[in-house]
Specification:
single chain; 243 residues; mainly alpha
Length: 243
């Protein structure tokens, strides 16, 4: 994130404290609205693909390509969001949410077929509570979460490698549960850290374009953490239920 060109709240703010507080609330609401819409869009894509056998087979066959696409968009999107127009920022965000929907569709189809989606609903509820609690913590705390967040972000690299190795070579259910638990813990910390960063990015004097780009970027950050936590909470619930 060091190469992204935006001003932070550490720089000069303009306006009264009341105006800044109101602007910050409006800005954060915009971030959460975009994030919620992104999650909803992912759900729509996943459910549509899961209900279409031909699309579902294509998504399953190309699951590794979709995985790489998710990683690629996760890397490129922030640069597009701040380097181009608001329209490009929107395109990058919705493309990211759409590819995630395609990538998780086969998994969603499995759980829909097993129990009618009850585990999915439970996982979504647990994710929402966990995410909301950690994001609130990141918003209200005065403690700098940079160290914790950076450590958790670095730990996820090792976890991703471990998950891939287990999926290809070992296919251990116990190891899958353990890595999912660590991923949820890591992204809980990352959620709080990201929220703090997003809050610090707010500047009362931002132009409409810059403010919109920051809102979309903030949603992009939180969206990725939410979906990642949901996937691994669902995996844990599925293992515990014996599915």
């Amino acid at each position: 994130m060091a190469d992204l060109k935006y001003r932070t709240a550490a720089q000069t703010q303009t306006g009264t404290r009341a105006e800044i507080d109101e602007g910050l609330r409006s800005y954060m609401l915009g971030v959460y609205n975009y994030m919620a819409l992104g999650v909803a869009f992912t759900a729509i894509v996943s459910l549509y693909v899961a209900s279409n056998q031909a699309l579902l087979q294509a998504a399953y066959s190309g699951r590794w390509i979709l995985f790489i696409a998710v990683l690629g968009l996760g890397f490129l999107s922030p640069r597009l969001m701040f380097g181009k127009s608001v329209a490009v920022a929107h395109a990058a965000y919705w493309a990211y949410a759409g590819v995630w929907g395609l990538a998780i569709a086969p998994w969603i189809a499995v759980y829909m077929g097993l129990d009618g989606g009850q585990l999915i609903v439970r996982a979504l509820g647990i994710t929402a509570i966990t995410f909301g609690s950690m994001s609130l913590l990141g918003y209200v705390t005065k403690k700098d979460l940079g160290g914790i967040g950076s450590f958790a972000a670095m730990a996820t690299i090792g976890l991703v490698i471990a998950i891939i190795v287990n999926a290809i070579f070992f296919q251990s259910t116990l190891f899958s549960f353990a890595t999912s638990a660590f991923v949820v813990l890591a992204f809980s910390a990352i959620t709080a850290w990201e929220t703090q960063i997003i809050k610090q990015m707010y500047v009362a004097g931002d132009t409409g374009t810059t403010a919109k780009q920051k809102s979309i970027f903030g949603a992009f950050m939180l969206y990725g953490s939410f979906v990642t936590m949901f996937i691994h909470i669902l995996n844990m619930l599925g293992i515990m239920s014996g599915d």
